[in-house]
UniProtKB/TrEMBL annotation:
Residues 1-386 form the Major facilitator superfamily (MFS) profile domain. This is MFS transporter. It holds the Pfam family MFS_1. The keyword Cell membrane does not apply. The chain crosses the membrane at residues 12-35, 47-66, 78-100, 106-130, 142-160, 166-189, 278-298, 363-382. Gene3D superfamilies: MFS general substrate transporter like domains. It comes from Muricoccus vinaceus. InterPro entries: MFS, MFS_dom, MFS_trans_sf. Keywords: Membrane, Transmembrane, Transmembrane helix.
């Protein structure tokens, strides 16, 4: 279940670069373009975040199906289709008439399809199909590279919007999907070997890593996913509520990317001997600690650094912990089941946390910290299989 004939560094490099582009032009887009987009359509910003949440809901619904397709057919074609869907969604956003918000929502729907087909979970399932139980290293490598998505995406989208307007920014991102990300997938990602014939029961957790373990893992990842989605959409705004200027808030938020990368470098070096469960507990503790740091007056940068480090490890854990607990066989389908509640919560997170910010101000920070503690408690109850 491995692909020894293909250079892993080439595959990791291609997927890492493509993932960076995919996250930057989709997940991290609303934080910059929501306000000018809302002004253009005469809508409140919460309406744009609501459309984004709807796109994430579509991602949640499609996740299990995407995982099964990758298990049976490999991920190269699915990832290539994600580039086409993201480019189409961005193009529709760019040309949507100001008097036709339904066209705008259609664009976000296409974005949801692209995210379902092409973000981390699809890439990780592709790597599991290529390398089986040895996929932990490639997963970490891809996540390490894509940790720069927010650092690249937020400032670049802000600059493009300032120079060409939000519509021009969307159109340029669409061209990058077609001109760069699509060739990376088609030319550098090999086809997965055919899966070994298995019975349906082999795609279900058994023994010590049973359904109770799966439920705890799903709960932990769901809480973490809520916080990650909320901050992806609102981190500059939250930091601004703490008293930072817009420029300082954006600069601090841009620290998340480097910290994600640094944490992932540590994962493949100093932390590589840790079981993924121990890494997951360490990572999840970053969210309540970040909330405590901001509440204690340590500043926006402290929050971004701690939050970014936790995020960096959580992204890897999301791919490696299910692999360690349940194995590589049926990985994509199982990931679809485990991550379905996380995706549903993530679909609501930008809108829910945005409303909390409007009504509670900086008090919304305690929602972030409390959810992090729930996730940490679930991981503490989770047990490593014998």
């Amino acid at each position: 279940m491995s692909a020894p004939g293909h250079g892993r560094r080439r595959v990791v490099g291609a997927l890492g670069a493509a993932q960076t582009l995919a996250w930057a032009c989709s997940y991290y887009l609303p934080a910059i373009v929501a306000a000018p987009m809302a002004d253009d359509f005469g809508l409140p910003p919460s309406a744009i975040f609501g459309a984004f949440s709807a796109s994430l809901l579509l991602t949640a619904l499609l996740g299990p199906w995407v995982g099964r397709v990758i298990d049976h057919n490999g991920g190269r074609g699915v990832l290539a289709c994600s580039n086409l869907a993201l480019a189409a969604g961005l193009a529709v956003l760019a040309v949507s008439p100001a008097g036709w918000p339904l066209v705008l929502f259609l664009g976000w729907g296409l974005m949801g399809l692209g995210m379902a087909l092409g973000l981390y979970d699809a890439a990780f399932a592709t790597l599991a199909g290529l390398y089986g139980k040895d996929a932990r290293g490639p997963i970490s490598g891809v996540a390490m590279m894509a940790g720069f998505a927010s650092t690249i995406g937020w400032p670049l989208t802000a600059w493009l919007s300032a120079e060409f307007g939000w519509r021009g920014a969307c159109l340029i991102w669409a061209l990058l999907q077609l001109g760069l990300a699509l060739p990376l997938h088609l030319l550098l990602v090999p086809a997965s070997p055919p899966p070994a014939p298995v019975s349906p029961s082999t795609e279900e957790p058994e023994g010590a890593a049973g359904w109770g373990q799966l439920a705890l893992l799903a709960l932990a990842l769901t809480g973490s996913g809520f916080n990650i989605a909320a901050m992806a959409a609102h981190l500059p705004g939250l930091l601004g509520r703490s008293g930072a200027s817009p420029e300082a808030a954006l600069a601090a938020a841009s620290l998340v990317g480097p910290m994600q990368v640094l944490a992932r470098v540590l994962d493949v070096s100093l932390l590589r001997r840790l079981h993924p469960l121990a890494t997951a507990r360490l990572a999840t503790a970053g969210h309540p600690l970040a909330a405590l740091a901001l509440a204690a007056g340590l500043g926006p940068a402290a929050f971004a650094l701690v939050h970014g480090a936790g995020n960096g490890l959580l992204t890897i854990v999301r791919g490696t912990l299910p692999l360690a607990l349940f194995g590589a066989r049926g990985y994509g389908a199982r990931q679809g089941i485990i991550l379905a509640p996380m995706r549903l919560i993530q679909a609501l997170a930008p809108l829910a946390f945005g409303l909390a910010l409007e009504r509670m101000g900086l008090g919304a920070l305690w929602i972030f910290g409390g959810v992090g503690l729930i996730s940490l408690a679930a991981l503490m109850a989770l047990r490593r299989p014998a």
